[in-house]
## 1
Amino acid sequence: TDTFIAAVYEHAVILPNKTETPVSKEEALLLMNKNMDVLEKAVKLAARQGAHIIVTPEDGVYGWVFTRETIYPYLEDIPHPEVNWIPCKEPQRFGYAPVQERLSCLAKHNSIYVVANIGDKKPCNASDLQCPPDGRYQYNTNVVFDSEGRLVARYHKYNLYAPETQFDFPKDLELVTFGTPFGKFGIFTCFDIFSYDPAVVLVEKLQVDSVLFPTAWGNLLPLLSAVPFHSAWARAMGVNLLAANAHNTTNHMTGSGIYSPEAVNVYHYDMETESGQLMLSELKSRPRNEPTYPAPVDWGAYAKGIRPFSSEQSDFSGMFYFDRFTFTELKRSAGNYTVCQKDLCCHLTYKMSEKRTDESYALGAFDGLHTVEGQYYLQICALVKCQTTDLSTCGKPIGSAFTKFEEFSLSGTFGTSYVFPQLTLSGSQLGPERYYEISRDGRLKSRS
Amino acid sequence: GPPVPVLAMALYGRVFEKDAPRLGQGPVKSE
């Protein structure tokens, strides 16, 4: 089929009580069934509306408040899909698997692909030198059941986020894909989206059409918020991205959506309530084959072709989420600025409707190793509103802005072809495509 | 389009070739 109906469900996960010691299997299953009761409603609603596939969030069945010991009763042994198993038909074939059985039956009874994130456990012994002391591996695992309830994909999260000490790193990278009548799918989880392995490899080497993305993403305003970052990734990588986020306003977790290379089809961002949200949208099954498929961008072309804008004012440094940026202030209502850090120079041309005295903006550059919750190299050009008019607050979390920009053009001398462009408006709303465009020479610019 | 109230705009680049084989870990669990 040329198109398909995708669904994602932002689930307000029912979290277990914090315990120092593991609960019983029965108590664990009770909590997981409460979450699956909610997921079941979303699956049924999506199926009734014609969805072919539904994605639910990372940790959506049991939450994230665990130690290595206390998560154990929530885990099941998840076999490799090559065993060709429909848990709804043979629930006991691989031992105790009530969660896999219920998810498989949800898919089978509603004739819809169901994507969920649960916990896998594998015994090991001293002959395996890497075997943990407690004699088992525990994996953060995505599973996919097709519309007959068959287990068609199992993915162990490769890039764990630092606080996920309840899980083990898989020994080897798993590149998990599967074919459907509506295109080839890849799958990974949350923090993996920053990676080359598996995120870029699935797209560039295995040529998937769509990516399934369960996530539990806590937003870090203004640059690491779920919706702008994930939609930018889909656009830059040229694939569909079905992103289902957990919903928990205490942890700033919200922001799910269905994104295609050309547009943000639908998204949801809600920091006001504790409600879940189902989203559906039609997607092209094979976006690469579409005439509207975005042309490749040479991200450094424009910036390397112009002279840096001279400026009499001095730069200043500021921290954004543990990364030390080099900033320069936008002092006037219109102008051209350049700020550099190491090999990266960022250029900005802009025009404000008016220069407000109660708001300050800065152009920032970062070129270096990010080291906090994982280690990865970044080159970032960013225009940000500062928290207050005190320039030491540039880079700190912000939520609203009143300064209106009539024109803007942002570019950088990037040394990488993997650049994700994002525009976030006041209230953390995504800047709609009608306001900006990406030129082939690498400018994020307002539409004239 | 009309003037827009910008919170942030960014070109967020990833330099994969400089990365370690796995994104690695920072300090252990932050509550």
Note: The beta strands of chain B are 4-14.
## 2
Amino acid sequence: MFEAKLTEGLILKKIVESIKDIVTDVNIDISPSGISLQAMDSSHVALVSLNLSMDGFEHYRADTNMVLGVSIANLAKVMKLADNNDQITLQADQEATHLKIIFENPKTERTTEFNLNLITIDSEHLAIPETEYSSVVTINSGEFSKICKELFSLSETVQITTNTDYVQFSVEGEVGSGQVRLGHNDSEKKEDQTILEVSESVQQQFAIRYLNMFNKASTLSSFTRLCLHQEQPLVVEFKIDNLGVLKYFLAPKISD
Amino acid sequence: LGKQHSLCPYYLAR
């Protein structure tokens, strides 16, 4: 038996919106301590990893580990039934064939229920090693979103360069070339801060199209954390207050 | 422009 109730259902709605363009069918892992999922996109270029702790739920019960195979596209359609102020409850029996999703609005007394059919997914076994990232950049999520969006109109690829003084996003295209450079800024106004933790400088190229997809999660978190290592994929991380973390992994583009 | 790499060599368990 699994049951989890989230008071701020909007968070779950936003999470589904933030991953639905990247992954289609996903195995959701339910454990007594929380909910997690990990899945690659069909081109194997990007990976989504979500971890939600039971502590963030108003009520959480999972007697055993369970795997729920879900079509994210269909889950997104069901989530449209939820009002932004709804509480959301997820329920599944042992050996479940469907996931029951309940939306409740205590103010308006409206309740919506949907039984989403589960599917069997042959998922790849992913193993993400613990990695020490040599550059970690914490940046306002809205600002990072805007930088990626505007640079995409100028080029398909961005080169991210880090060093102890700044992080630089540079593009080169038919229009011309240029860069946005952000220095370390620990100003009192928290939302303006850009925090650089660089032990080794990194220079890598990435497809901006994917960064734009990841940035749909910017409404979940005030800050985006970029974790870089010269020999590793980029990690774009959004902390969800009191609940968990949504991470995206992106393979670099390699010059020949 | 660089060539797009895949995540498989990094993360796919064999």
Note: The longest helix of chain A spans residues 141-152.
